[in-house]
Design brief:
The structure holds 2 protein chains of 2 kinds. By secondary structure, chain A is an alpha/beta fold. Among the domains of chain A are: 221 residues, Dimethylsulfoxide Reductase, domain 2, CATH 3.40.228.10; 125 residues, Barwin-like endoglucanases (Beta Barrel). Chain A contains 24 helices and 26 strands. Chain A is globular. About 3% of the residues of chain A have low confidence. Chain B has a domain of 121 residues: Alpha-Beta Plaits. Chain B has a 4-stranded mixed sheet. The longest helix of chain B is centred in the first third of the chain and has 9 residues. The two termini of chain B are 29 Å apart. Classes of the chains: A alpha/beta, B alpha+beta. At the A-B interface, strand 1, helix 1, strand 4, helix 7 and helix 8 of A face helix 1, strand 2 and strand 3 of B.
Chain lengths: 728, 178
Amino acid sequence: MEHLSRRKFLQISAATFGAGAVATQVAPLSSAAGAAGEVKAIPTFCEMCFWRCGGLAYVRDGRLWKFEGNPLDPQSRGRLCPRGTGAVGSHYDPDRLRQPLLRKGGRGKEQWAAVSWDEAFSFIAEKMKAVKSAHGAESIAMFNHGVGARFLLHVLRSYGAINYAGPSFAQCRGPRDVGFTLTMGTDLGSPEPTDIENTDCLVLIGSHLGENMHNLQVQEFANAVERRIPIIVVDPRYSVAASKAKHWLPIRPGTDLALLLAWMNVLVSEGLYDREFVAKYGLVFDKFAAEIRQYTPDWAAEQTGIDAPTIRATAREFAIRRPASLIHPGRRVNWNGDDAQRSRAIALLNALLGNWGRRGGIYINHHVELAAFPLPKYPKSDKPKADNPSLERYPFATESVTTGLRETTITGKPYPIKAWWVYSTDLIHALPNEAETLKAIDQLDLLVVVDTMPSEIAGYADVVLPEDMFLERYDELLAGWGRQGWVALRQPVVSAPADQKPAWWMAKQLAEKLGIPEAMPFKHIEEYLAYRCEKSNIDFAKLKAEGIVMGPKEPIYAEDGAAIEFGTPSGKVEFWSDQLKQAGFDPVPNFTPPEKPAEGYFPLITGRAPVHTFSRTQSNPLLASLMPENSVWVNGGTAARLGLKNGQVVKLKNQDGVVGQPVKVKVTQRIRPDTVYMVYGFGHTNKMRKHAFMKGASVAQLTTRYKTDPLMGGTSLHSNFVTFVKEG
Amino acid sequence: MARYGMVIDTTKCVGCMDCVVACQTENDVPVGYARDWITTTVRGEFPKLTMEIRTERCNHCENPPCVACCPTGASHVNDLGLVKVKANRCIGCKACISACPYGARYVHPKGYVDKCTFCDHRVRDGRSPACVSVCPTHCMHFGDLDDPNSTVATLLRTRKWHVLLPEAGTRPRVFYLT
């Protein structure tokens, strides 16, 4: 029996947090000054992750006290996740960037001079002007994540930049977006319109809801558990979701597509699919059906390690409940390099269930269309985008590819990339193969990092610009997609603790220094926000007071009148894809078995923990005290065979000989004997990140090998093998 | 008088620790300390496994050993029937920490013993404890165990449940639905 209790927990926190903790951290973050002082609750929306829940921030005697869900908000329904609740800790994070920094020593040596904002922008503008005159503004690129990038990106584009990309595409949801776009003509968007609330059967394949805290989905998932509907979880690891499931399929890593094909085989060969839906909306179903016949459950059993009767039983389980039956499309879906086809298989399986626009399936989502603020047009460029130089390379990419931009930066082809703006994303942790990222950085004349925290990549920057965290700033309005559209406002709740500034303000300074002040034609962002609201018939004062304004109610199900439309070239659900065939790809997804590891090596898979977001939160005092480091999960039998003990410190070495940071072994029954798992985002090496420095090990560091999805440029993050190096 | 209790549905809990963070901010718990925590118990061998996830805290026992052993009266049962600690009467002798079978108490850096209060300051305003009110899975319920129409009483009548260490004779008022 494995038991993790409080005593154990306190031991962990005392050992790893108490030891290095400074005196202030033994006190509460927001110290109560005697009796209850003046308390104000101010609505805003969260940026602890990309879910962007509405919340109410409580300020007590001028100090940030707590952050709770806004009951008006459809994303959180008044309940935040632990990171949202823990946002208070990000305001008080002792490792925050405090003032603009200019690099003094060699790149990556982390020697800095604190400078004024004016000096920082003068330096940046001079370098940008030099890049523009030597190579053209197209040679200035941006990598970004989050709402705050809006105005910086706008100013860069106003200056002539055309290359910008977020890891949220090629390193996250891109394969799903493309798989669904090829099949259904829509990328689903965020949040995914999954009607978990009303489904009669839920399939999670590689999705660990409950460990990833996609708020509304977790709430609906918990309700689904309470409703006792059959839940089927496919995961090499006994995830939290698996522990709630009727069926847990501990699949061999890299073989999801074989299972998906066999499930489709069962639905087609047993006639369990929605014939009416297929007849009405399907394109070239016969050729698809003929192709799918080869993928029998017996064949898939060989590939996946899931026995054929279980494959049949689970297929029938979800098929008989259609259309209120849902194969969750997933979110981060870049596993093995064939992920767009894997996601296409998920789209096809949902199509066979006829659940599009149906209660308990995939609902038709809505949002509020906001009026634009009049801004000058961007200059035209005659150069192609540099992330995907010829569309023959990643023909179905729907957004720019980060790793494509990185490659162009290294090769200088089709033209050089000489300046990077990196906004709120840590490319060292987000992109595979750190060495390539560093090689690209070597080519740059300018690397600007804007962040609240000293990320790994900030260590390599020429200029580091400290941003207000989200509770201290205004940002662009949020027009959210959901069962009902809504508009949310982000507004400052407390002042920044030092010389941090909001990104919109930085954008305005930058525009002026670049000689294009007309790009930011407003004095303060409030002017901009008020204008958009007024022109959209939204009462700005009400939005400031309540944080959320709901859009009109519109039908979300076909039976209530929601439009069923598919944005594919044919206007149909493309079971057999002529688009793919024309481009030289498999018109029906085709399975390639994953490579096998060498003797003594294990596939390293990764995922999320509920209290952390990416590599951002590891020094947040509240969240770090709950999970100060990650561990490497090893099956009990495997650990016994290798002589590994629970809590023992090891290093992992990957197939390319890269040795990771020291990390504790978690001996558990909750994982396949042939697989190991680590939560990503740990193992920080930036010296400014004192409270997370060298805690746990970085998954990114061990991800030296990756495959690129030929359809859309997504990079696989589960294609590395590791072995154990025991510490003396 | 109401007999307050907490009923927690372990089948819904995902162990996200939101309850822990919410308690820390609501109650100004020093960083690195916690009044509530998550326990996971895994049984079986791969791949035949079960797992129970529980959010745990002071059980506000009806027969509280911490109160019985306190030499100064700092640990007491208050007017709402909740087990509390008067910080200014606590001498930090830790007798209660030894007596509590649940590990619910810790020594606050200021020298007194601290633990869950069921957020009695909120309960007096008719609100749920902070942990209950933030839980994104809605796995926690708080109310009057003696009111047959309360959610907590209804759940205890209609679902299977257990308490922690019933053999200790403490009569806990935190119940776990399975």
